[in-house]
Design brief:
This protein is an alpha/beta fold. The chain has nine helices and nine strands.
Length: about 270
Protein backbone atom coordinates (compact mmCIF):
# COMPACT_ATOMS: atom_id res chain seq x y z
CA UNK A 1 0.00 0.00 0.00
CA UNK A 2 1.19 3.50 -0.83
CA UNK A 3 0.23 6.55 1.24
CA UNK A 4 -0.13 9.75 -0.74
CA UNK A 5 -1.00 13.25 0.45
CA UNK A 6 -0.77 15.55 -2.58
CA UNK A 7 -2.89 16.14 -5.64
CA UNK A 8 0.22 15.81 -7.81
CA UNK A 9 0.79 12.28 -6.53
CA UNK A 10 -2.80 11.38 -7.40
CA UNK A 11 -2.46 12.86 -10.85
CA UNK A 12 0.65 10.83 -11.61
CA UNK A 13 -1.39 7.69 -10.95
CA UNK A 14 -4.05 8.44 -13.55
CA UNK A 15 -2.11 6.76 -16.36
CA UNK A 16 -1.85 3.60 -14.23
CA UNK A 17 -5.59 3.75 -13.57
CA UNK A 18 -6.59 3.79 -17.24
CA UNK A 19 -8.73 0.81 -18.31
CA UNK A 20 -8.88 -0.41 -14.69
CA UNK A 21 -11.85 -0.45 -12.35
CA UNK A 22 -11.15 1.89 -9.44
CA UNK A 23 -13.00 1.38 -6.16
CA UNK A 24 -13.04 4.39 -3.83
CA UNK A 25 -13.99 4.58 -0.15
CA UNK A 26 -13.97 8.14 1.25
CA UNK A 27 -13.71 8.30 5.06
CA UNK A 28 -12.90 10.66 7.90
CA UNK A 29 -10.71 8.05 9.55
CA UNK A 30 -11.15 6.33 12.93
CA UNK A 31 -11.91 3.26 10.86
CA UNK A 32 -14.18 0.54 12.24
CA UNK A 33 -15.93 -2.57 10.95
CA UNK A 34 -18.40 -0.46 9.02
CA UNK A 35 -15.60 1.13 7.01
CA UNK A 36 -13.88 -2.22 6.64
CA UNK A 37 -17.03 -3.69 5.08
CA UNK A 38 -16.97 -0.93 2.45
CA UNK A 39 -13.29 -1.52 1.74
CA UNK A 40 -13.81 -5.28 1.41
CA UNK A 41 -16.64 -4.75 -1.05
CA UNK A 42 -14.45 -2.36 -3.05
CA UNK A 43 -11.60 -4.89 -2.98
CA UNK A 44 -13.83 -7.69 -4.22
CA UNK A 45 -15.18 -5.75 -7.20
CA UNK A 46 -12.33 -3.55 -8.47
CA UNK A 47 -8.79 -3.74 -9.79
CA UNK A 48 -7.52 -0.85 -7.66
CA UNK A 49 -8.80 0.32 -4.25
CA UNK A 50 -8.31 3.87 -3.00
CA UNK A 51 -9.28 4.97 0.52
CA UNK A 52 -9.21 8.59 1.60
CA UNK A 53 -8.90 9.87 5.15
CA UNK A 54 -9.84 13.51 5.55
CA UNK A 55 -11.65 15.11 8.47
CA UNK A 56 -13.60 17.66 6.48
CA UNK A 57 -13.96 20.98 8.34
CA UNK A 58 -16.70 22.40 6.12
CA UNK A 59 -19.30 19.84 7.23
CA UNK A 60 -18.90 20.55 10.95
CA UNK A 61 -21.03 23.29 12.46
CA UNK A 62 -20.01 25.67 15.24
CA UNK A 63 -19.94 23.78 18.53
CA UNK A 64 -19.67 20.34 16.91
CA UNK A 65 -16.80 17.93 17.54
CA UNK A 66 -14.33 18.87 14.78
CA UNK A 67 -11.40 19.35 17.16
CA UNK A 68 -12.27 16.27 19.20
CA UNK A 69 -13.09 14.02 16.25
CA UNK A 70 -11.02 10.84 16.76
CA UNK A 71 -7.81 10.72 14.73
CA UNK A 72 -6.01 7.37 14.48
CA UNK A 73 -3.82 7.65 11.41
CA UNK A 74 -1.33 4.96 12.41
CA UNK A 75 -4.07 2.43 13.23
CA UNK A 76 -6.10 3.43 10.17
CA UNK A 77 -3.10 2.92 7.91
CA UNK A 78 -2.57 -0.55 9.33
CA UNK A 79 -6.24 -1.42 8.80
CA UNK A 80 -6.04 -0.28 5.19
CA UNK A 81 -2.90 -2.30 4.66
CA UNK A 82 -4.49 -5.43 6.11
CA UNK A 83 -7.52 -4.89 3.86
CA UNK A 84 -5.24 -4.84 0.81
CA UNK A 85 -5.87 -1.19 -0.08
CA UNK A 86 -3.64 -0.01 -2.92
CA UNK A 87 -3.55 3.73 -2.16
CA UNK A 88 -4.38 5.70 0.98
CA UNK A 89 -5.00 9.37 0.22
CA UNK A 90 -4.56 11.52 3.35
CA UNK A 91 -4.26 15.19 2.35
CA UNK A 92 -3.91 18.27 4.54
CA UNK A 93 -6.72 20.84 4.68
CA UNK A 94 -4.58 23.32 2.74
CA UNK A 95 -4.28 20.77 -0.08
CA UNK A 96 -8.05 20.50 -0.45
CA UNK A 97 -9.30 24.01 0.27
CA UNK A 98 -8.30 27.50 -0.80
CA UNK A 99 -9.12 30.80 0.89
CA UNK A 100 -11.83 31.76 -1.62
CA UNK A 101 -13.81 28.68 -2.62
CA UNK A 102 -16.53 28.08 -5.19
CA UNK A 103 -19.34 26.67 -3.06
CA UNK A 104 -21.93 23.96 -3.61
CA UNK A 105 -25.39 24.06 -2.06
CA UNK A 106 -27.60 21.18 -0.99
CA UNK A 107 -30.96 20.98 -2.81
CA UNK A 108 -33.79 23.06 -1.38
CA UNK A 109 -36.13 20.18 -0.52
CA UNK A 110 -34.17 17.01 0.16
CA UNK A 111 -31.26 18.91 1.73
CA UNK A 112 -33.35 20.89 4.22
CA UNK A 113 -35.28 18.22 6.09
CA UNK A 114 -34.27 16.03 9.06
CA UNK A 115 -30.45 16.33 9.23
CA UNK A 116 -30.64 19.45 7.08
CA UNK A 117 -32.84 21.13 9.69
CA UNK A 118 -30.81 20.00 12.67
CA UNK A 119 -27.42 20.74 11.03
CA UNK A 120 -27.89 23.65 8.59
CA UNK A 121 -24.93 23.88 6.22
CA UNK A 122 -23.68 20.38 6.99
CA UNK A 123 -24.77 18.95 3.65
CA UNK A 124 -23.24 21.86 1.74
CA UNK A 125 -19.83 21.00 3.18
CA UNK A 126 -20.34 17.27 2.76
CA UNK A 127 -21.24 17.59 -0.92
CA UNK A 128 -18.33 19.97 -1.46
CA UNK A 129 -15.72 17.50 -0.21
CA UNK A 130 -17.29 14.47 -1.90
CA UNK A 131 -17.35 16.31 -5.23
CA UNK A 132 -13.68 17.27 -4.82
CA UNK A 133 -12.65 13.73 -3.92
CA UNK A 134 -14.59 12.13 -6.76
CA UNK A 135 -13.00 14.54 -9.22
CA UNK A 136 -9.54 13.86 -7.83
CA UNK A 137 -9.73 10.06 -7.65
CA UNK A 138 -12.00 9.57 -10.70
CA UNK A 139 -13.23 6.19 -9.46
CA UNK A 140 -15.34 3.69 -11.32
CA UNK A 141 -17.25 2.83 -8.15
CA UNK A 142 -17.59 4.81 -4.90
CA UNK A 143 -18.85 3.12 -1.74
CA UNK A 144 -21.09 4.75 0.89
CA UNK A 145 -22.96 3.28 3.85
CA UNK A 146 -26.72 3.34 4.32
CA UNK A 147 -26.40 4.55 7.92
CA UNK A 148 -25.97 8.08 6.58
CA UNK A 149 -29.09 7.63 4.46
CA UNK A 150 -29.73 11.29 3.70
CA UNK A 151 -26.08 11.87 2.85
CA UNK A 152 -26.16 8.86 0.51
CA UNK A 153 -29.29 10.15 -1.21
CA UNK A 154 -27.79 13.61 -1.75
CA UNK A 155 -24.53 12.19 -3.12
CA UNK A 156 -26.49 10.11 -5.63
CA UNK A 157 -28.50 13.19 -6.59
CA UNK A 158 -25.32 15.26 -7.03
CA UNK A 159 -23.77 12.56 -9.22
CA UNK A 160 -26.88 12.60 -11.40
CA UNK A 161 -27.25 16.40 -11.51
CA UNK A 162 -23.58 17.02 -12.32
CA UNK A 163 -23.34 14.08 -14.77
CA UNK A 164 -20.43 12.51 -12.90
CA UNK A 165 -19.08 9.29 -14.37
CA UNK A 166 -19.12 7.16 -11.23
CA UNK A 167 -21.30 4.39 -9.81
CA UNK A 168 -22.46 5.10 -6.25
CA UNK A 169 -22.66 1.78 -4.41
CA UNK A 170 -25.02 1.56 -1.41
CA UNK A 171 -23.65 -0.61 1.41
CA UNK A 172 -25.58 -2.10 4.31
CA UNK A 173 -25.32 -0.84 7.89
CA UNK A 174 -22.85 -2.80 10.01
CA UNK A 175 -23.80 -3.24 13.67
CA UNK A 176 -22.06 -4.17 16.88
CA UNK A 177 -22.99 -7.54 18.38
CA UNK A 178 -25.46 -5.76 20.68
CA UNK A 179 -27.17 -4.02 17.74
CA UNK A 180 -25.64 -0.55 17.99
CA UNK A 181 -24.89 0.84 14.54
CA UNK A 182 -21.14 1.19 13.96
CA UNK A 183 -19.94 4.78 14.30
CA UNK A 184 -16.65 6.51 15.00
CA UNK A 185 -18.52 8.48 17.67
CA UNK A 186 -19.45 5.37 19.68
CA UNK A 187 -16.18 5.70 21.58
CA UNK A 188 -17.59 8.82 23.26
CA UNK A 189 -20.27 6.77 25.04
CA UNK A 190 -19.84 5.76 28.67
CA UNK A 191 -20.87 2.24 29.67
CA UNK A 192 -24.29 3.44 30.83
CA UNK A 193 -24.78 5.67 27.79
CA UNK A 194 -23.99 2.75 25.53
CA UNK A 195 -26.70 0.71 27.21
CA UNK A 196 -29.12 3.62 26.81
CA UNK A 197 -28.14 3.98 23.13
CA UNK A 198 -29.24 0.41 22.43
CA UNK A 199 -32.83 1.61 22.67
CA UNK A 200 -32.33 3.18 19.22
CA UNK A 201 -31.74 -0.10 17.41
CA UNK A 202 -34.33 -1.83 19.63
CA UNK A 203 -36.97 0.66 18.53
CA UNK A 204 -36.11 0.10 14.86
CA UNK A 205 -36.25 -3.66 15.30
CA UNK A 206 -39.61 -3.29 17.07
CA UNK A 207 -40.98 -1.14 14.22
CA UNK A 208 -39.84 -3.69 11.62
CA UNK A 209 -41.56 -6.46 13.58
CA UNK A 210 -44.80 -4.45 13.84
CA UNK A 211 -44.72 -3.73 10.10
CA UNK A 212 -44.20 -7.43 9.45
CA UNK A 213 -47.33 -8.07 11.52
CA UNK A 214 -49.34 -5.62 9.40
CA UNK A 215 -49.06 -2.27 11.22
CA UNK A 216 -48.43 0.42 8.56
CA UNK A 217 -49.67 3.55 10.36
CA UNK A 218 -46.70 5.88 10.77
CA UNK A 219 -48.04 7.76 13.81
CA UNK A 220 -48.68 4.54 15.72
CA UNK A 221 -45.23 3.20 14.88
CA UNK A 222 -43.46 6.43 15.83
CA UNK A 223 -45.34 6.70 19.12
CA UNK A 224 -44.34 3.16 20.09
CA UNK A 225 -40.71 3.79 19.12
CA UNK A 226 -40.51 6.94 21.23
CA UNK A 227 -41.71 4.99 24.27
CA UNK A 228 -38.85 2.53 23.80
CA UNK A 229 -36.38 5.45 23.63
CA UNK A 230 -37.88 7.33 26.58
CA UNK A 231 -34.56 7.46 28.46
CA UNK A 232 -32.65 9.33 25.75
CA UNK A 233 -33.09 12.71 24.07
CA UNK A 234 -34.80 12.13 20.72
CA UNK A 235 -34.19 14.73 18.02
CA UNK A 236 -36.45 13.09 15.49
CA UNK A 237 -38.11 9.85 14.50
CA UNK A 238 -39.27 10.05 10.90
CA UNK A 239 -40.97 7.71 8.47
CA UNK A 240 -40.34 8.82 4.89
CA UNK A 241 -40.09 7.60 1.34
CA UNK A 242 -36.75 7.33 -0.46
CA UNK A 243 -36.96 11.05 -1.33
CA UNK A 244 -37.29 11.90 2.38
CA UNK A 245 -40.90 12.98 2.02
CA UNK A 246 -43.08 12.21 5.05
CA UNK A 247 -45.23 9.10 4.78
CA UNK A 248 -48.41 8.65 6.81
CA UNK A 249 -48.46 4.99 5.83
CA UNK A 250 -45.54 2.60 5.36
CA UNK A 251 -44.99 1.49 1.77
CA UNK A 252 -42.97 -1.70 1.44
CA UNK A 253 -40.00 -1.04 -0.83
CA UNK A 254 -40.19 2.75 -0.50
CA UNK A 255 -40.04 3.52 3.23
CA UNK A 256 -37.22 4.48 5.57
CA UNK A 257 -37.47 4.90 9.32
CA UNK A 258 -34.84 7.33 10.54
CA UNK A 259 -33.74 8.33 14.03
CA UNK A 260 -31.43 10.97 15.44
CA UNK A 261 -30.87 11.10 19.20
CA UNK A 262 -28.54 12.61 21.77
CA UNK A 263 -27.10 10.14 24.26
CA UNK A 264 -25.12 12.07 26.84
CA UNK A 265 -23.07 14.45 24.71
CA UNK A 266 -22.98 12.10 21.72
CA UNK A 267 -25.28 12.48 18.73
CA UNK A 268 -26.21 9.22 17.04
CA UNK A 269 -28.21 8.40 13.91
CA UNK A 270 -29.65 5.12 12.69
CA UNK A 271 -32.26 3.85 10.26
CA UNK A 272 -33.83 0.90 8.55
CA UNK A 273 -34.99 0.61 4.95
CA UNK A 274 -38.33 -1.15 4.56
Amino acid sequence: MKIIDTIEQLQTLQDKFKKLNIGFVPTMGALHEGHISLIKQARANNDIVVVSIFVNPTQFLAGEDLDAYPKKMEADSKICELCDVDYLFAPEISTIYSSDEVLIKAPNVRGFTLEGVKRPGHFDGMLQIVLKLLNLVQPTNAYFGKKDAQQLSLIKLMVDNFFLNVNVIECEIIREVDGLAMSSRNIYLSAQERQDALSISRSLKFAAKKIGAGEFNSDILISSMKKIMAEIHIEYVAITNRKFEKQDTVVIGDTMILIAAQVGTTRLIDNIWI
